[in-house]
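Q: Convert this sequence to structure tokens.
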Amino acid sequence: MKHLITLAFLLLALGCAREVPQKITSVLDYEKYLASNGKLSIEHALNELTFWESRLTKDSTNIIALGKIAELHTRLFSLTGKLSNLYTSEKLIAKSLQLSARNKDTYLRSLAHNYITQHRFKEAKILLDSAYQFPDNKRATEYMLFDVFMELGEYQKADTLLGNIKNKTDYNYLIRLSKWSDYKGNLSATIRYMEQAKTIAESRGDASLKVWIYSNLADYYGHAGRLNEAYEYYLKTLKLQTDNVHAKRGIAWLVYASERNTVEANRIIDAVWTYHKGPEYFLLKAELSKFDRNGAEATVYEDNFRKALLTEDYGAMYHTYLIELYTNNNPQKALSLAKLEVANRATSETYVLLAYAQLINAMPTEALATIESHVFGKTFEPKAIYITALVFKANGVLDMVPELKLDLESAAFELGPLRMREVEKL
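A:
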């Protein structure tokens, strides 16, 4: 009885703490970065593109020009979210691979990286297997193979490879060790290894490395509830790269999830959206509308998200988002798409979406089997824990739900206040 009372008080205390907005950000800190709409970076990339395209016009087989143009289209995709740049880059890299007499492994890795961005993970693995046959730069290929193994759910292969490439003085190894620790649910180790990678990046003075590490470290600090540090590192990212989309979205989430300020969060998102046109912003704004209990507005945003995916061929890049949307209004389509996503990459995260789709389609027994075989104890992602709790509850496995609910309470920031409303119903 004493334990039950303690648990009740703990749940109440966590719930109360979560409902009190926590002020983390200041407009004065980031306002100057919102004014940086990517214009200068985009113009610089376009000017470079014009130069290299002129070189290619004179010689269509100029492999150096092809590589530079491909690289610039990749950069423009990162800056603008414009899908055509990603596909143009793919074609140029493929042509470079075809024309090259040397360094084919380099082009194979570049093309694999492009495929990873498109969520074409199986095809990326084929390319990397080919690259591994070349004697040079095997370590670079191994790093990418680890990434692909993780995306495909081939965790044992990823673990074995990580052991083979162990080198704690190598930045690339440390960020992958951090990723592995995150998969294993060891957030403190995840952060520790990322901080070690940060030390290396700073010692090199490489701005691009620091931008990557600062923005990702900020995410992990947020997951750990270290929100002031998360905010600090988003700002450090923006100091180095004023139009960094990831950092601005991170601050928008802080403003929303910690401070409950949907007006300011929307303003930040709108500022990013002026130059980066990814469809995911529709879903961010839909969540903010739902939190404000404006269901009609949220529906419009979700419809616009689906329309955006129909307008351009995003392939499998947004399947996980679509599955969740379809569970609300087209359960059969959600189930079909979830099966397709599992076939594309059989990870714990895709299996949990399959379980959710099965549950929504009145298949609780099948959902439980999916959770027990592929999810429970195999992933520590808060969304997966939430869906696991739903499936357990639907199947009468009630003894585990309070413990899972406590785990979710500790991940309140990562899940966001809207999802936490649902957690309270468990």
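The two ends are 21 Å apart (CA to CA).
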